[in-house]
Design brief:
alpha+beta, rod-shaped, 3-stranded antiparallel sheet, 27% strand
Length: 222
């Protein structure tokens, strides 16, 4: 490139390069760099057609030599088409995954037909100065191999009644029966061994639970 006779240049000083010349020089540098680091045999969009010219399958452009093609791959058009292609392939992949999920058989949720509440007996008594409640529930039609369960629920956790901080609930559950709950005093329950232990009589299908409260009942003075 002739740098000495450029209009606007002065003898003995650096030449004034126009924007077009700068772009040409930049593309030349990119082409030389691409020729050093890019292997055309691994480029999926590089093709030599029947005329012997080089073609970009992505942008549908023709090039006279490898340098011209490599310069094209560093250009704005090729880079934008690469981004569009990646975005489109990403959408296609998401669509395939979505269709695959739709075609997968949905797992059927286990639904149990409830048959009502079990029969029960409740006995309140006092033992060694402590309040004790005995619960006995009859599960005649309990699901085979199912063992009844129980848990204590806060008055603020349940949604059936207006919460009362003075009470808590003892809930019993067994398939296919509806859950049944009992309101008991909101006092600390004795959980020492043998004092809050349920018993399941499988043959009779009777579930019993003894609940003892830690607070002692004060004896009234005569």
């Amino acid at each position: 490139m002739d740098m000495q006779n450029r209009p606007g240049g002065r003898t003995g000083s650096g030449p004034m390069a126009s924007a077009a010349d700068s772009n040409v020089e930049r593309r030349e540098r990119l082409k030389q760099l691409a020729m050093e680091i890019i292997d055309l045999q691994k480029d999926p969009y590089f093709m030599i057609n029947h005329l012997g010219t080089y073609e970009c399958k992505l942008c549908l452009t023709l090039h006279t030599n490898e340098g011209s093609y490599l310069a094209h791959t560093q250009g704005k058009k090729h880079q934008q088409n690469l981004l569009r292609r990646k975005a489109r392939e990403g959408k296609d992949l998401n669509a395939i995954m979505h269709i695959s999920k739709q075609n997968q058989p949905k797992q059927q949720k286990h639904k149990t037909i409830k048959i009502g509440r079990p029969g029960y007996k409740v006995l309140r008594t006092i033992e060694n100065g402590s309040k004790v409640i005995y619960f006995e529930l009859q599960f005649e039609d309990i699901t085979q191999n199912f063992i009844p369960r129980h848990r204590v629920m806060s008055a603020f956790e349940q949604k059936i009644e207006q919460p009362d901080k003075n009470y808590q609930y003892l809930i019993f559950a067994a398939e296919p029966y509806e859950n049944v709950g009992f309101k008991i005093p909101n006092q600390e329950i004795e959980t020492a061994e043998g004092k809050f232990q349920p018993t399941w009589e499988k043959d009779k299908k009777i579930y019993t639970l003894r609940v003892q409260f830690k607070d002692k009942i004060e004896k009234k003075q005569k």
